[in-house]
Amino acid sequence: MNKPFVYLIGAGPGDPGLITVRGRECLERSDVVLYDYLANHRLLEYAPPHAELIYSGKVGGAHNREQGQINDLMVAKALEGKVVARLKGGDPFVFGRGGEECEALVANRIPFEVVPGVTAGIGAAAYAGIPLTHREVTTSVAFVTGHEHPDKESSEIDWEKLSLGSGTVVFYMGVRNLPQITTNLMAHGRSPETPVALVRWGTRPEQEVLTGTLADISEKARKASFKPPAVTIVGEVVRLRQTLRWFDNRPLFGKGILVTRAADQAGEFSDLLRAQGASVFECPTIRIVPPEDPSGLDAAIASLPDFQWLILTSVNAVRQFFLRLAHHRLDSRAMGRCRVCAVGPKSAAAIREHGIIPDLVPVDYKAEGVVAAFRELDMAGMKVLFPKADKARDLIPLELAKLGATVVAPVAYHNLPPVALPPEVLEALERRQIHCATFTASSTVRNLAELVGENRLLHLLEGVTIAAIGPITAATCRELGLEVQIEPEKYTLEAMTETIVQHFSR
Length: 506
What we know:
The chain folds into four domains: 5-117, Cobalt-precorrin-4 Transmethylase, domain 1 (3-Layer(aba) Sandwich); 122-244, Methyltransferase, Cobalt-precorrin-4 Transmethylase, Domain 2; 256-286 and 417-505, Rossmann fold, CATH 3.40.50.10090; 289-415, Rossmann fold. The chain is elongated, with a radius of gyration of 28 Å. It starts with a strand and ends with a helix. The chain is built from 19 helices and 24 strands. The strands form six sheets. It has a five-stranded parallel beta sheet, sandwiched between helices. By secondary structure, it is of the alpha/beta class.
């Protein structure tokens, strides 16, 4: 049996990018992950496929498991000889009960490691544009629980020391007790005009910030129905938010955007949108799979030296072509003097990764642009290889044949719809949390319609801004009854992102 081991990992306050390198490494070697309500679920993607994922947070505001039950489960899984990752929001040792969990491990002689994380007080303050210390304002900061153990007969918080002086005070889990907190601070000498900020879901795209003073913040929170999870920041540094605000004033902040690219390709687009503040919902509507019968492509590869041109119209085409080449224990040297046409900068970049500089990159990134570029060349008697998707248009083969070329167009890959819509995406659509749906190929539109049904698609996207990357995709959207409001002039993800930003900034 393997030796038991437990990692207590600080997941950070919510932004998955804030987990430490060490924390990610420990997740990657885990057999079991016990994760909390405040740990971003995207971090679970770092766990191995075989890992058992166990939720140990809250359900409907109540604890799914009490702390003693969590301790017992953690110990039991470790004693099975498993590597357990205890993934905790924030930092395990800052109001995270990490000390109690370590004591349980020590009592059972289970070795462990504590991986610190960015605690919510620091992370939420930074993302709200509030420096907790500033040499012209204050040089001290205190972290205090706003929710003491219910069994305590009296408060252990030294309100007098917290109230005197100019230090910043950060209260965790104090929204429900906000009236008592503000009253105690003012009663012990803190000025009623002291600035206060409440930061809910700090560092996440849904972050909310409410500011006021000790005198009025409780009433403001009541009127705004401001709910946990949140931290309360008290002190003069809160005034600096007016000039240092950087996270929640980005152009797409508060906008939910649907990304429908293939699962292994969504990341790049999602990152571009998140950098502008968007809350991204990834909904892969395409599965890229090789054809069941690759004999057509295999035959073309066998006679590759006979071709004068190779046309690759997408990153998928590049990937599948070179995968099939490798299957036959060949590489780019097999192409000999065959020239290469890449459609779009991404395809060109993917080709360069194989040591080939494209000979032709049409200015227009659609099939019509490819044909226009070849019209400038003498194609009479030329043999062209065009590995394509199963549902690709026939425009390129037909038009190049008119120019005197012989075009071989084997199917290199299939665009298939996924089995089901991700439940979190469906929930977001039904709750009207998505403001913009993006489509980067006609197949993404058709597959989504096939997945949910055309009528239901129109209902789910009612009032949602539709963004299509080019005229062909836009035409497919309109065929299905969707009104396209965003269509970039250049058919790239960067241009798509920029056009979305411009649309929502108007």
